[in-house]
Design a protein that fits this description.
This protein has about 325 residues and is of the alpha/beta class. About 30% of the residues lie in helices and about 15% in strands.
C-alpha cells in the first residue's frame, strides 16, 4: 500500500501545531464502563418550535465549535488536556420523523439511561428547542428525586398547551401541571419586557415561581442572585437542574437564537452565573437550548455554548 506524504483522509487535512490541543480532542465516545469528567447528549429536536427553528442542527454545530478553542486557560494557568479531562459523548438521540410525542418519549428514555450510566458527575444535554426540558426533567426526577430548576431565559415558557400542544413555549407549565416539579422549585432569571404575555407572568406568580427580570439582573450582582437561588432550593430538592435558553443573551451576542431580542444578558454575566451555580454539589445536570445554526453569524451562538462546556470542565 502506498503511503502518501501529504494526503490525508477527507476532512482530516488540517493544520496541526505540535504544541496545541484543540478542545474537540477531549471528546470520547461512550463505551461500557467509560468514565469522564462531564457527559454530553444531543437532543436534536426543533419540530415543536412555535417559530421557525433549525435547532435540531445545534448539537453537531456546538461539537464542531469545540475545534475553535484550545484546552489552555491562560487566566487560571490550567490545561484541560494535561489534566486528562475527558468529555464522554453519548451522541445524539434518534428522533421519530413525524411524532413529537414519540420524540419527547425518546428523550425521556435516553436521559434516564444516561443518568443511570454514571458515566460522569455532570451531564449537559444539547438541544434542540426548549421542549426537550420537560422530558429531561421527568427522567431526572425518576433517577435522582425531587428536582429544582434554575432557568435562564427571556421567556417564562409557561404557555398554555391547548393552543399548540407541547411546544417549546410550554416546558415548565407541563412540568408543573404534570406534577413533576412544584412551582416554588422553579427560579427564572433574565425574563424580559415585551417578551411575555401578562397571563403567563400571572401564572408564574400564582404557582410560586421566583422570577428575576433583566432589571433585577442589571441592579444586583448575578452571584448574589444565584447564591440566593441555590439557598432557596437546596433544602427543598434532591437535585438542581440548570436550563439555559440562549435567548437570555442580548441579540448582539446570540444572533443564532430563533427568538432574539434586545435588552438581554451579557455573556460574561451568564458565564459567571453558571460558574457560581456549578460549585453547589446538588447541581448535576443542565441543558443548553434554542440555538439555530442556520440563523447564526459565524457560529457566534454555538461558540458561546461550546465555551460554556469548557468553562464547566475547568471547574
Amino acid at each position: 500500500m502506498t503511503n502518501f506524504q501529504h494526503i490525508k483522509p477527507a476532512g482530516k487535512a488540517q493544520f496541526k501545531d505540535r504544541y496545541t490541543t484543540k478542545a474537540a480532542e477531549l471528546l470520547a465516545p461512550w463505551g461500557e464502563g467509560e468514565k469522564g469528567d462531564i457527559a454530553i447528549l444531543g437532543a436534536p429536536l426543533s419540530k415543536p418550535s412555535i417559530s421557525h427553528s433549525g435547532a435540531s442542527f445545534a448539537p453537531d454545530a456546538i461539537r464542531k465549535c469545540l475545534n475553535s478553542f484550545t484546552t489552555y486557560n491562560i487566566e487560571k494557568g490550567t490545561d484541560l488536556a494535561e489534566a486528562n479531562k475527558k468529555i464522554i459523548d453519548f451522541g445524539d438521540i434518534t428522533m421519530h420523523p413525524t411524532s413529537i410525542e414519540d420524540c419527547h418519549e425518546r428523550i425521556y428514555q435516553s436521559v434516564k439511561e444516561v443518568a443511570n450510566s454514571n458515566a460522569a458527575p455532570f451531564t449537559i444535554i444539547l438541544g434542540g428547542d426548549h421542549s426537550i426540558t420537560t422530558s429531561a426533567v421527568k427522567a431526572i426526577k425518576e433517577t435522582k428525586g425531587t428536582v429544582g430548576i434554575i432557568q435562564f431565559d427571556a421567556h417564562h415558557d409557561l404557555r398554555n398547551t391547548d393552543d399548540g400542544g407541547p411546544t417549546n413555549g410550554t416546558p415548565f407549565r407541563r412540568l408543573i401541571e404534570g406534577g413533576h416539579i412544584q412551582g416554588e422549585h422553579l427560579i427564572q432569571i433574565g425574563i424580559r419586557n415585551y417578551a411575555n404575555a401578562k397571563a403567563y407572568h400571572d401564572y408564574a406568580i400564582e404557582k410560586g415561581v421566583t422570577v428575576y427580570t433583566m432589571k433585577d439582573v442589571r441592579q444586583h450582582p448575578i452571584t448574589d442572585i444565584i447564591t440566593k437561588s441555590l439557598q432557596q432550593l437546596q433544602d427543598k430538592v434532591d437535585t438542581i437542574y440548570l436550563s439555559v435558553d440562549m435567548d437570555v443573551l442580548d441579540q448582539a451576542y446570540a444572533p443564532g437564537c430563533p427568538a432574539i431580542g434586545p435588552g438581554g444578558m451579557h455573556p460574561d454575566t451568564l458565564s459567571e452565573a453558571i460558574e457560581t451555580a456549578l460549585v453547589h454539589p446538588k447541581v448535576e445536570m443542565m441543558d443548553i437550548v434554542e440555538i439555530d445554526p442556520t440563523l447564526d453569524v459565524r457560529d457566534m451562538t454555538s461558540r458561546r455554548a461550546a465555551l460554556i462546556i469548557l468553562e464547566l470542565l475547568n471547574q
